[in-house]
Structure formats: structure tokens, C-alpha cells
């Protein structure tokens, strides 16, 4: 594990980490399946499908409804329907997880550079952050379609390291999914796994993050031990 006292920057996942966006994704998925005249799915099923981006979510939903693998043409035809339903439901039922507002404010006060690294399409991530009045904390927002690859590939994180001219030991990834932890390991940075989000029903500890937290505010137990960042050379 990298030393916590060297941290200067933190990358956060979005869905299942900062915001419980599952209710809106559930409404969008069920609405899309209904419009496509396909059998619906349960709330729990959609929660288990979240984490690999909108296209994979819809692929899983279609596979469930059709009881067979879906062709690329079927998926391509269904995606605009899903995107329209999600745009209509964005911010309707989602909620910030407890402690997010307070912790982000504290980290900003301490001078950390912060980014959102999500597999959600960028055009949905930005307004969602704005709707909950937390977008101003982040100097970078990378969606699943912002670069050529997304988590669990390390590219979004190595992109941040290069753009911010940081060494791996000063960047931390905080997320709820094994995709977050795998990306962090591949990028050579530290990671904190959260137990309350969407991780396909798996214990986040099985992915071996550097630390595991049950609540968002618990990350301060680790991050707050670092030297005040604003006293360091700015990122």
C-alpha cells in the first residue's frame, strides 16, 4: 500500500460511491424494456447490472428479457431508447449517500485535487453532479466514453496522473466496485473500497483494496492523516 501521507489527489467513482443513482437507472431500464415490448426486470436485478457503463447495463437487461444473448444490432437499436428514458429520469430519484457533502467540503478545504472517474456516459455524469451541488469540487470528470477505455482498464487513472503530472503514490481511487479497485491496482495507485454500493453482490474486500470503509465519512480516517495538501506544491 502506498503511504497515505503522500496523497495530493483523489479520484472518486460516481454511481454507488457518491450518489445512489440506482433508482433512476431502474426506472430507465424498466421503461426502455416496456417501450421495446419486452419482459421487465426487478430492482435488485438492475442493481446487480450496474457498474460497467450504460451499454453493458442494457445488454444485461436485454439478455435477461430475451433469455438469450443479444446481437449487436438489437443492442444498438435499444440503446437510444434506454438513453432517452435515462435522460428523462436523471436526478428524479437519486440521492447523495450520507456524508458526501461534508467530506467533499472537508477535502476541498484541505486542498486535495479531486476528480470523478465513472463508467457512466459523460453527458449524464456532469448534470448529475451539478444537480446535487457537488460538481464544483471536481476539476476533472471522466465518463465511460471520455477516453478509449474505461474501468477496469487503468487508462482513466493514468490519464489523470499524466494530466496532473502526479506520481502514482500521490493519487487515491475511492469506489464501490471491483472495477475501481482493479483499475487502481493496474495504475499503481492506492484504493479504498466502499461496502455499500453496487458490486455485483460481491464483498468489495475480495478485490483487496488498500482499505475498506462502510460509510463515506470513514475515508477521512485515512485521508485526514495525510499532510495538509495546500502546504505542498500545488497540483
TrEMBL record:
Molecular function (Gene Ontology), one example: metal ion binding
Catalytic activity: 2-phosphoglycolate + H2O = glycolate + phosphate
Keywords: Carbohydrate metabolism, Hydrolase, Magnesium, Metal-binding
Broad EC category: hydrolase
Gene Ontology CC, one term: cytosol
This enzyme's EC code(s): 3.1.3.18
InterPro entries assigned: HAD-like_hydrolase_sf (IPR050155), HAD-like_sf (IPR036412), HAD-SF_hydro_IA (IPR006439), HAD_2 (IPR041492), HAD_sf (IPR023214), PGP-like_dom2 (IPR023198), PGPase_prok (IPR037512)
Cofactor(s) it depends on: Mg(2+)
GO biological process, one term: carbohydrate metabolic process
Top-level lineage group: Bacteria
List of residues binding Mg(2+): 13, 15, 176
Active site: 13
The keyword Hydrolase belongs to this UniProt entry's keyword annotation: yes
Pathway stated in the Swiss-Prot or TrEMBL entry: Organic acid metabolism; glycolate biosynthesis; glycolate from 2-phosphoglycolate: step 1/1
Stated family: Belongs to the HAD-like hydrolase superfamily. CbbY/CbbZ/Gph/YieH family.
Function recorded in the entry: Specifically catalyzes the dephosphorylation of 2-phosphoglycolate. Is involved in the dissimilation of the intracellular 2-phosphoglycolate formed during the DNA repair of 3'-phosphoglycolate ends, a major class of DNA lesions induced by oxidative stress.
Protein name: Phosphoglycolate phosphatase
Organism expressing this protein natively: Shewanella hanedai
UniProt lineage: Bacteria, Pseudomonadati, Pseudomonadota, Gammaproteobacteria, Alteromonadales
